[in-house]
Write a structure and sequence with these properties.
heterodimer; A: 309 residues; TIM Barrel; 13 helices; 44% helix; B: 293 residues; mainly alpha; 16 helices
Amino acid sequence: MMLIDPHTHMISRTTDDYEAMAASGVVALIEPAFWIGQPRTHVATYIDYLSSIVGFERFRAAQFGIRHYCTIGLNSKEANNEELAEAVMEILPRFALKEGVVAIGEIGYDEQTPLEDKYFRAQLELAKELDLPVMIHTPHRDKKRGTTRSMDVCEEHGMDPGKIVVDHNNEETVREVLDRGYWAAFSIYPSTKMGNVRMVEILQEYGANRIMVDSACDWGISEPLGVAKTARLALERGVPEEQVRLVCYQNALDAYGQSGQMKEEHWLNPPPIDQRTVYEGNSILRGGRDPLVEDSGSKQHRRDDLIIE
Amino acid sequence: MTSNNTQAIIEIENWLQRRLSNEQWHWLQERRELNGNENANRDLHITLGLIPRKLGRDDLELSDSELAGANSARKNWDPSSWTVDCAARMLVLAQLADQDQAGFADVLADLCRTADLAESITLYSGLPLYPASAKLDAQIGEGLRTNIRAVFESIAHNNPYPAEFFDQNRWNHMVLKALFIGSRLAPIQGLDDRANAELALILRDYAHERWAAGREITPELWRCVGRFATADMIDDLERVTQSDINTERQAGLLALSQTPKGVADQRIAEILAKFPTQVEQIADGTLTWDTNH
């Protein structure tokens, strides 16, 4: 089954992860601009980070036959450094129109401070001006109220819920997010966000409409195979295949495809210019072939193989 | 450079006008007229960002006469692999370069700093149309250091700039890097003219490294060795003629047939004598570096 992981921070991941994701069926992924664990204190480092996710990281992903997209934004944590935030806001329009940028994001609240609120709103306006979808990061703490507030603010700014993905949902937030017409994303992230057993239960209760799963894998202890493992578990536990396809592939494509920057043909039948540049030297995605699926033991096999050539 | 650019701009305008809808062409004209406005820098970024969204990314597929037009506007300029968005962006950039020759390299460096993959390729493939300067030279150095093969090739391949402007060190390292990253040498303009003794030495050492590691060597490597081969390289070239792979054998023979007179004439004649058919083909021009693939 072809999979899309619509939330990954590959800049923090190794080539082993890319290899494993490709083998699990991931054909495309989305890398939201976010905090990198260590606060950035200069706009210049922020610029280089954004350049990496629109440039080099796309190239790196393509070497494994994976199509890389990203979202551009000022995250809620760093919105609290006002000097940095002002400077970042100035350069965002420069990045928001780069190839493969599918949304403004991930934006929203962390501790729900006035500065977070100010820059969240400013970026909603930018998304509206550039006609881009939005990816919302809901806060880890005070999540339920933070999620409600995020949607209230979107509506205050006249945003269309159909172009907004609310991410990091759980059992407590999903009902309201779906009822209000937003896309609801779930991050399968050990210990702090969703587990995939709970995820399968949510699918059994709510169905697949406007729901998507992602791994949100980053610099922390996280699982780049979150989407693949959830898909398998869901199938094993009797979720219909079509529903699994929706939450692990199609819904992400429909939501972020509204940017005009993400199309199925990019991995099924890449345009000639991409075959010459992005995928040069990589046969996996050329000519619309299905992604190469290795047996699940290949990584273990490699660990045991002492020969490096 | 200015008069050349004027002609180049006219050529690009013609290519685009033939391929774009009226609506697309008018949009591009409007965006070009924003040049010089108060918010020119912001407008420039938005224009460059919007171009592929508005005009698409199809291959231009220039006709022979259009390519001939390119070559007469700027000698050896080769836009045969350009796309519509690449051409439209280049139109905007070439116009900027004409308006402000002294300041253009700063604009280019700034654009390169935040470029996505397709933009990087476009920015560097436009080198033949930019006014040469020390700052431009430094930016090309940055471009060559990329890890992204397609960006490297936008400088190295089908581009007259390196042969015209690179010093020997940069030239040699560009050729070596092309081999190192698995890129081809044939599309490098001026490859034979710019061959030199130091490059021959570097490539021979590189071949030894590859052999020691048990890795393959592309037959193209020997193209830059033959004319500058020294006596101690003849063993290496002989080894290449003994390869199991036909193109490698032929590369060894082509290189040997180009060695300077007086290096090891007797020895070379003995090796070549073992391959009468290929030697004849080399003599009558049916086997050349360009046919050996």
